[in-house]
């Protein structure tokens, strides 16, 4: 008897781990994926990163969660089926899916390769797809996604360490490019040395930028300088250090998602410097205007990137051997990992080994 193919074994069925309520506790969950449409790519999920937003969403801390909720938007795997009109991918390709799986394709943002700012952007999980079905994320054994929202993973990137680039990586790469903080010789500060911050250092250094890590924790100095290759380190609570660095930076990428003062960060900027927020604190930050006026300084924000730029980021990472620093875990460890993530007890990104440890 011929061995059944993956598609025959998994006819639009899926198995994953889901949160059922605001406790955020994840447990095994069987559900259905849509059938592979003519422009769809189906792939077997091999690895999925754990983003801090997965924790927020599992607990409905942003008030938008739809239960049962299968998290995960740093997803990589191997193509098992393609629709009849798919042009960019074939069975066996290594691919990834990030934070979005759909958009309107007709607004100004979509027409300018900025699907991430489309008013009708469809998130990878906990939202409604074009056909009204619920989207489920990468804590599952397979995905079906429109080929437009799938990226090719170059062969030289290890899949496990590449997975976090699909959210954390593009979140810091995009503002470095858009705000012109990618020029050799520039000086950029990176606030926070977590999942986003550590890859921000790597991307900026690969662009030829001088990088200063800014952290509340003096314990991270050796890690920042010796392991990640930052040029200097500032303890944000040390007023003397911060005072000495005033007016020295072309830009600051702020990755912190907790409440924190931004006046000291604005003070670090040169005239016409840019403070870019990519973290998402739950409460509004206080914005002092006078320091902005006195230096024509800019405070901006940035959220992931469009699909063209996301592929560009992955290719840049492959060319420069940039990967995330990860701790690979089994699927049944996910609730413990979430508890550790809440305590920032990870260096720097958990990645679930879906392919080897997901048991239906």
Description:
With 360 residues, this protein is α/β, with parallel strands linked by helices. It is 25% helix and 25% strand. The strands form four sheets. Strands 3, 4, 5, 8, 9, 16 and 17 form a seven-stranded mixed sheet that branches. It has a six-stranded parallel sheet with strand order 12-11-10-13-14-15.
Mean pLDDT: 94
**Sequence of secondary-structure elements:** HEEEHEEEHEEEHHEHEHEHEHEHEHEHEH
Oligomer: single chain
Shape: globular
The residue fraction in helices comes out at: 25-40%
For the sheet with most strands, the description reads:
7 strands, mixed
Please report the total strand number as a whole number: 17
Low-confidence stretches: 4-11
What value does the Rg take, in angstroms?
21 Å
User: What's the N-to-C terminus distance?
Assistant: 24 Å
Structural class label: alpha/beta
Proportion of strand residues: 25-35%
């Amino acid at each position: 008897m011929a061995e059944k193919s993956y598609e025959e074994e998994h006819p639009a069925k899926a198995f994953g781990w889901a949160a059922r309520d605001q406790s955020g506790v994840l447990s095994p969950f069987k559900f259905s994926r849509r059938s592979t449409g003519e422009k769809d790519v189906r792939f077997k999920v091999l690895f999925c990163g754990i983003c801090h937003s997965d924790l927020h969403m599992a607990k409905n801390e942003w008030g938008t969660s739809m239960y049962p909720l299968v998290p995960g938007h740093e997803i990589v795997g191997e193509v098992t089926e393609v629709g009849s009109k798919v042009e960019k991918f074939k069975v066996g390709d290594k691919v990834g899916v990030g934070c979005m799986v759909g958009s309107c394709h007709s607004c100004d943002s979509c027409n300018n390769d900025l699907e991430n700012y489309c008013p009708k952007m469809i998130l990878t999980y906990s939202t409604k797809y074009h056909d009204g079905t619920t989207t489920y994320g990468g804590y599952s054994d397979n995905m079906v996604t429109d080929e437009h929202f799938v990226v090719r993973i170059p062969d030289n990137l290890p899949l496990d360490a590449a997975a976090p680039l699909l959210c954390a990586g593009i979140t810091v790469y995009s503002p470095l490019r858009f705000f012109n903080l990618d020029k050799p010789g520039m000086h950029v500060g990176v606030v926070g040395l977590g999942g986003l911050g550590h890859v921000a250092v790597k991307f900026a250094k690969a662009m030829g930028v001088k990088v200063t890590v800014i952290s509340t924790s003096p314990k991270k100095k050796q890690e920042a300088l010796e392991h990640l290759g930052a040029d200097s380190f500032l303890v944000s609570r040390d007023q003397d250090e911060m005072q000495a660095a005033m007016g020295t930076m072309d830009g600051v990428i702020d990755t912190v998602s907790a409440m924190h003062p931004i006046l000291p960060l604005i003070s670090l900027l040169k005239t016409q410097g840019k403070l870019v927020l990519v973290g998402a604190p739950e409460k509004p930050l206080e914005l002092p205007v006078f320091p902005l006026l006195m230096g024509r300084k800019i405070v901006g924000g940035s959220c992931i990137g469009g699909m063209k730029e996301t592929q560009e980021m992955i290719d840049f990472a492959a060319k420069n051997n940039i990967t995330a620093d990860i701790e690979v875990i089994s699927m049944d460890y996910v609730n413990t990992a979430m508890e550790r993530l809440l305590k920032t007890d990870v260096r720097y990104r958990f990645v679930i080994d879906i392919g080897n440890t997901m048991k239906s």
